[in-house]
Every structure is written in C-alpha cells, then in structure tokens.
Amino acid sequence: MLNKHSCINWDGIAVTPVTQLTRGSSATVTVRQSEMWSWIAALLAGILSAHLAQRLWFPYFWKDALFLTRVIRYGARLEIYKRTSRVVTVVDRFVQQAQRIPDKAFLIYEGVTYTYGELEERSNRVARVFKDAVKKGDTVALLMSNEPDFLSVWFGLCKLGCAVAFLNTNIRSRSLLHCFRCCGAELLVVGADLLETLEDILPSLQQDGITVWCMRRDSPRPGVHSLLDQMQKASREPVPAERRSVRCLRTPTLYIFTSGTTGLPKAAVITHLQALKAAGGFWVYGATGSDVIYTPLPLYHSAASLVGIGGTIELGATCVLKKKFSASQFWHDCRKHNVTIFQYIGELCRYLCNQPMNEKDHRVHMGVGNGLRQDVWREFLRRFGDIRMCEIYGSTEGNLCFMNHIGKIGAVGRSNFFYKLIFKYDLVKYDLVREEPVRDHSGFCQHVQKGETGLLLSKICSQSPFFGYAGSKQLTEKKILRDVFVKGDAYFNTGDLMAEDEDDFICFRDRVGDTFRWKGENVATTEVTEILGLVDFIQEANVYGVQVPGNEGRAGMAAVIVRPECRFDGKKLFSHVLRELPSYARPLFIRLQESLEMTSTFKQQKFSLVESGFDPCSISEPLFFLDYTEKSYIPLTSSIYDSIVSGQKKV
C-alpha cells in the first residue's frame, strides 16, 4: 500500500509527489509575479521620468503636437485638391453647409438672424441677375459696408466664376479710380449708403465702360442700375455648379487692397489657396460649429472676410456681424448673442480697456487677431477674465503665417523644428541707416542669433508661393529679395523686424519704416509706446522719429492722448522716461492730440505725423520738449524751436 509520500516509476516515467508539485508551482508563480511587478514599476518609473523630462525640457510638446497635427490634417486636404484638380472652394463649402444645416443661423446682423439656407438662396438670386452680364474669370468690384448683402453679392458673383475686388470704403476720388484700373474690374456693385462717394468719379467710371449697380430698389440716377428689385424678380434656384468650378488652387478669387498709408492702395492677389488656408484658422485653434463668432472688423479686410466669414463657414458656426466696432456696445453684444469667440485687430482691445467697466459676465473664451501689445494684453485679461488670446501674424499678400497657439503674452507666433520643415523663413541682419539687409563679402544675407532682432523673410517656393499685386509687376518685384543665401533663390520681404527667443516664440519688434536710429542706437517704436502707456494720465501714444537739422538719424517724438479725467504732467512724464528708457530712446518731443489718426483697420498712422515734424508754428496742437535742466517736459515755444534748429540748444 502506498502512502502519499511515495514515488513510483512506471515504464520509466517519474511521478512527482503531489505536495512537491504544488510547492514548486507556487514558487514559480511567485517569482513570475515578482518579475511582473518589477517590470510594471520600471515602466511606471520610465513614464514618470519621461513626463518630468518632457515638462522640464519640452514643456509645450503636447500642445505643439496637437497644433501641428491639425495643421498637417488641413494641409493634406489642400494637397489632395492640388493633386486631383478638384478644388472645394470657400463658396463650395458654404453651399455644402447650406445643404447640411439650412436652418442654422449663419449671420446675425442688427438683431436679425439669417440662416445658411436664406443666404444661399439670396446669393443665388444675385448670380441669376448677373449670369449674362459677366463671364467666368471676370473681375467685379464691391464697394459696400458691413451688411448681409455684402456676403450675398460676394458669394453670388463667385458662383459665376468671377473674382471679386473688395474696395476700402474709406478711399475716395483718385485712389478709388486707381483701384478699378489696377484690378481690371468692369462692373461695380455699391452699397446704397456709399453711392455718394462715387459722385466725383462716376463720369470717369462710365467713360471707362464700368457698369455701376446700386443696392437699391430704384435707380437713383442715370447710368446707375438698381439691384434689389432685380434680385426680387430673379429665381432662387442655383446656377450650374460648373460655372464656379475650379481646377487650380492658384486661381485668383479676390483682390484685397492694402491700406496705402504712404501711397496709393495696392491690390493684393488672393487665390483659392490663400482663402482656404485662412478659413482653417479657427478650426486649427480648436473652435467648433457650436461657437458664436463676433466680427466687428470691416469685411473688405482679410481678417474679417477670409478668417472671420471663411472660418465661420468652415466650422458651420454662427457669425455676429457688426456694421462698425463700438467699444461701449461690445460686451452687451457678447452677452446678448452668447458670443464665444471675437475677432480683433490693431488697437481694438485698447479701446475696450479704455472703457470704465470691468466685464467678466460673458461666455467669451477666445479672441483671434493680431497687433495686441503686451501691456494691453495683460490689462485685457485682468479686466475681462481668462480669455485665450490667439495672435495670428501674416500680411494680406504674404506667403507666411505664424500662430501663437500657446497664448504666451507678447508673442505673435511659435515655431519649432517640424514647423520650420514646412514653412521656410529666416531672420536676417538689417541696416537701419541704409534701410536694407546686411550682406557679407559674397553678397549674401546674414542670419541673426537667437534673441536678436532681424528682418523676417519667407522663402518663395511651391509650398509657399507669393502672388503679388494686380496690375503692377514693379510693386510685386519690390517685395521680393533675390540671391539671399544662394544664387537664384527668392524671398518675400515682410518688412517686419522680428526676434525668435530660446523657446522658439516669435515676437514682433517693429516695422522697418517705424524703427529709427538716434545717437547711434536703434529705437523700436513699439517698446517706447508700451513704456509711455504705463503713465497713468496717458490713454494712447503713437511714437515716431522726426528729423532734427544738424543731427544724424531721427529724434523720438510721441503723439499722446491724455485721459479725459486727467491733465498732462510734464514732470511726472520726465521722471518716468528717465527711469524706464535709455537716453537715446526717450521722446524729445510730445504732441498732445484729441484723437490719433488710424487706418480703417485700427492701425496707427505715422506718415503724416512724421511729415509735419515738430514746428510749433505749423502745428496748432500743444507741443512739449524734454528739458533736462527743468527736469520736465516744457512747452515747445518758437524760440526753443529756433534754438534747436540753429544748433544752439543741443539735443
């Protein structure tokens, strides 16, 4: 009889006792569990170490990765359009959205809501009116203020395959005629409220064979056709899609005019490629179809039309369109319409900060635009809450765009290794005296070091083409630098002085024409403007350089608006600039103004200020001079002016 500890060998087969087998298996399992936990601990330690290393050395890795993923996804769509020669334009996308969500609010204007379906039908009526008057490829000029029919006419003409020239509503007479001639428009649609602006040039337009249509129900004068009554009679059925079909992304769709601060406006050529890139801006920043976008900017400007309206269409969102920006109505409008995203440009945010109220009872979570200075940025967030301000850098005609997706205060964009593989740009040394890039003995431009200020250039290539200006090869060529780093290369000259810091953030320093030299040093007007803005009695400042006879370079001067409840204090301002600015950057002259001259897109005008100089006999507004003896800014009299000009008083 066998007991439980016996071992028997049957036919050479060894049989292990049950107890020993159980104990061996348990030991093996224990060892394996121990090894598994060791591996898990090592894996967790590795993940934690990698996370800490990423936070320490690559703090923006995941935000950069998400942003680049979106950029690449959107870019892949455009690449498919190019390769298949089947382009889905912004207007095609609008038609798709009108079919998908016809009853959704597309536009809210002065309290009235217009759905995607309604704007689609109204644009069809416009297309029906003009289908025999224009042919595919023609250019039609549009002179209208912000209103729903701006979009109806724009989309209707695009459905006929026309390119549309957006005319700045502030230009008049000679400049307006120039705009027609350089873009080659043969037909003009003008808003009812702007017809009088054509009074002086209407005979010239008619002599040039340009047909004029007005957004009215009856003809206001001979030779001007009424459009609203014709639209009412026209069918709302769409014209054949073939009429608007596009096979090449480089086909022009719009002409948008630059502000022309130092000359006549230039017609920047906007192709379908540029329009589609701009329309993806909100989506890349993470906006969705549920957002409500507030656009108080003029539609003839690329920020409102391409980024604002185009971006709204891309998302299938809703746009609240304002006829004209109003600082006092801004937050009321945002609350009333549940606005979540607003567009800004230039000094718009400063105007809001100048309002007396602090407003945080709103749903706004994002602002998208450009030109937001650091001091205004901080004040805006303090006054109005944690709003993500998304700066976009890029000119209307340019071939480069930066986006500050991180939200770092003061940066206009962010770059990294992968971004530079896609977008070829460089910062080069710039000579402010000669007003040209610095070239070495071989004739090539020189890179600046990290943190140094340089002229921003963007390489012109198949991925980033530059389409230039309509009607002027000379103006187009002026914006191109050739033989920059190698013989035969070509770069778009942005005219902007920028710097890139150690963390790859791009910061705007100044426009080439705005930065000036004094006492052998470079003075950046934006930096001086920010310093002056810290003085409690200064509401706004515009800094520029003026010629002083007998001196090289240009002396600093600032046009200043004093806050309504304050008065100008020369001693306080003297102490402030003495403490905050180096001697060469301190404004020698102050000019008090009731309002600063602005472009229609809220950018400060400097040209006329520079031209007028600092002569108290020709300037009626109060002028002040930086006097180190008096330790104050003192009134600039004719005798002081004469002593400066004659060289008796050193500056």
Automatic annotation (TrEMBL):
Gene Ontology CC terms: endoplasmic reticulum membrane; plasma membrane
Taxonomic lineage of the native organism: Eukaryota, Metazoa, Chordata, Craniata, Vertebrata
Membrane topology: Multi-pass membrane protein
Family of the protein in this entry: Belongs to the ATP-dependent AMP-binding enzyme family.
Transmembrane segments: 36-53
Originating species: Cyprinus carpio carpio
GO MF annotation list: long-chain fatty acid transmembrane transporter activity; long-chain fatty acid-CoA ligase activity; nucleotide binding
Enzyme class: ligase
Name of this protein: long-chain-fatty-acid--CoA ligase
EC number(s) recorded for this UniProt protein: 6.2.1.3
Coiled coil feature spans: none
Record-annotated AMP-binding enzyme C-terminal domain positions: 527-603
GO biological process, one term: long-chain fatty acid import into cell
Domain of life: Eukaryota
KW Cytoplasm (keyword) present: no
Keyword Iron-sulfur attached: no
Cellular localization per UniProt: Cell membrane
InterPro entries: AMP-bd_C (IPR025110), AMP-bd_C_sf (IPR045851), AMP-binding_CS (IPR020845), AMP-dep_synth/lig_dom (IPR000873), ANL_N_sf (IPR042099)
Chief location of this protein within or outside the cell: membrane
Keywords: Cell membrane, Fatty acid metabolism, Ligase, Lipid metabolism, Lipid transport, Membrane, Nucleotide-binding, Transmembrane, Transmembrane helix, Transport
PROSITE patterns: AMP_BINDING (PS00455)
Domain AMP-dependent synthetase/ligase: 95-412
Catalytic activity reported: a very long-chain fatty acid + ATP + CoA = a very long-chain fatty acyl-CoA + AMP + diphosphate; a long-chain fatty acid + ATP + CoA = a long-chain fatty acyl-CoA + AMP + diphosphate; tetracosanoate + ATP + CoA = tetracosanoyl-CoA + AMP + diphosphate
